[in-house]
């Protein structure tokens, strides 16, 4: 039986924030509605592979994570993941379920298939890469940038290409080596008669039409020249599926700068690609005019509905800067395949996250639940052994207090073990809080000694009360023992008046402090407005920035136009104004 299938590639700029954005991993996957979903820049380490991040019902998943910390890169840097929507992970003939899977592309990180695991076999260098040393291969393959899944009729490469800026010679060489090795792997598979599909963020905009601000020499870049040399129209073997379907579409971008708000004016680049190569599946002897892309690719397009900037959003310079834009700085790209036959029955490869130790461990909830329950019950038993009310917090056994404490004990005893500990902690906190907020009246309330209470504790309270009375007596206020009837009422009223006056004074003091703070903040804001320059293009306040790139200006502050980056022909876009904060010298960037 022949079926259609949909493949999506999406640089998520962190899998965790995308899951939080959609509420759960299944909701994120379902929003893309595809049979195979390839994520790049997952930013997960091996230790982060928990069930809620990597497993979803109805999907088999495969991950590759960074294994190096070179150049300050953390274990959560880059990373790719492939999710395959299947009805069954075992004895299935679905094309979406891989027959085999490989982390990386050098062969040294391990391969697995659906028939038997190769964990006991020593990893060997992949065919076509024997000319490279093992150290070279491992260095390139250690950043979690590639996953290969074999789907029978085609081999799928999920790739996150390295980024290299002009003045970083080390990363430029790394990127050259990375793609040189990949090309050899592709060529080897094609030589074997296999079909390949390459998807992902390659970090290369191949032609001027794929970049918003392409300069005249844009296409002379060595990576762009290499990319175009792979394409069919230039004598290569790969089909740029999107350009094959939309050869003249301009402004078809997949990535925008977050820091400059470039999405607002669609000022981006097309660096997320779907490429294919190989023969069609029709099996005709005369293959002229037949290839996988021509015969089996129905459509390919960019899913612009996933863009962070939505039509109708308030522009940045009109108050929209405070609006939080959710989503990645990339958007997904998809392709639909047709007439793809089923494959022989097979099971999910052992590289699947269902076999990852941490994922399996997180699903053993009964063991962890009993372990947590045991530790809680131990703490509760210790609380029961020790006095519920410590000696320094003994209460006087007046009928009212006795009934109150007894009722608290009864309530605590009737609660479940899970709720006892928090309630005890809360009551302790409340008692300490009450003790630190005594009012003047509390010093004149005599404590009645209890026959059942600790005598030393009661003596201590009486002593404290006597000291309070003596202090008041020294100030000319009669002691409580000498008072009765109206005189006592007068004293209490006087105390209430003193306390109320104290509270009013405190209230007035707080208001005065808030007023002073507000005036100071207004003064700072006014000072900032006076020192922030106005951009030359729009005469609007600039926004401050700080240099984060290593070099002589690292940490230095500067000002730029507040508007979003856009084409020079659009007067509403950023005017290119620039000024150092600590120098009078300013400069305008030509647009």
Automatic annotation (TrEMBL):
Residue stretches making up the GRF-type domain: 535-584
Marked site (Important for catalytic activity) residue numbers: 272
Keywords attached to this entry: Hydrolase, Lyase, Magnesium, Manganese, Metal-binding, Nucleus, Zinc, Zinc-finger
InterPro entries assigned to the protein according to its UniProt record, in alphabetical order: AP_endonuc_1, Endo/exonu/phosph_ase_sf, Endo/exonuclease/phosphatase, Znf_GRF
Site (Interaction with DNA substrate): 330
Domain of life: Eukaryota
Cofactor(s) essential for the protein: Mg(2+); Mn(2+)
Site, Transition state stabilizer: residue positions: 203
Residues the record lists as binding Mg(2+): 11, 41, 201, 203, 329-330
Pfam families: Exo_endo_phos, Zn_ribbon_GRF
Single GO cellular component term: nucleus
Active site: 160, 201 (proton donor/acceptor), 330 (proton acceptor)
GO biological process: base-excision repair
Cofactor binding comment, as recorded: Probably binds two magnesium or manganese ions per subunit.
Molecular functions (GO terms): DNA-(apurinic or apyrimidinic site) endonuclease activity; double-stranded DNA 3'-5' DNA exonuclease activity; lyase activity; phosphoric diester hydrolase activity; zinc ion binding
Family membership: Belongs to the DNA repair enzymes AP/ExoA family.
Protein name: DNA-(apurinic or apyrimidinic site) endonuclease 2
Organism of this sequence: Nicotiana sylvestris (Wood tobacco)
